[in-house]
């Protein structure tokens, strides 16, 4: 078998990208990302709202389950300090505690026991309106709320088209709704 005279000196084709090709690809990628980003913002806002609402639903269910499984009342309230309930729900932090007296007041030196402290996302707030105008949600050992059916608006940091609303009925059942931002108390 005879070898071709140029076979030993033939160069293989180069593979890879030149610097100019790489810069062009990066510039096109940045341009496409810049075009797509504004259209992704509503999706990101919906996902943030959904995650925040799910977090509040989870803490409400946690409070209810603690009351049922422990056989004694449990209370959820707003708390900026983590050691007492606030009068308004705008603090951005929620506190769950075992409340044997069922009075809705956290007594850290008494029989009350702190169960959980949860932070809402930055600058989010909650508006809670209930029968009796109480600043807490208390569940009894059956999982019922103490005469407190009400509506909880979960308000984002910035105005948006719709907000999430949780409706809690007398037997502690949650219902999720949406409401126009302009019709809310946010």
Describe the structure.
The chain is an alpha+beta fold and 186 residues long. The protein has a domain at 55-183: minor pseudopilin epsh fold. The protein is 28% helix and 25% strand. It is built from one helix and eight strands, in the order αββββββββ. The chain has one helix at residues 19-70, and strands at residues 74-78, 93-98, 113-119, 125-130, 137-139, 150-155, 162-168, 174-180. The strands form two sheets. A four-stranded antiparallel beta sheet has the order 3-2-1-5, covered by helices on one side. Strands 4-6-7-8 form a four-stranded antiparallel beta sheet, with helices on one face. It is elongated, with a radius of gyration of 28 Å. The N and C termini lie far apart (87 Å). The mean pLDDT is 83.
Report the total helices. Answer: 1
Radius of gyration: 28 Å
Succession of helices and strands: HEEEEEEEE
Structural class determined from secondary elements: alpha+beta
Topology at a glance:
Blueprint: H1 19-70, E1 74-78, E2 93-98, E3 113-119, E4 125-130, E5 137-139, E6 150-155, E7 162-168, E8 174-180
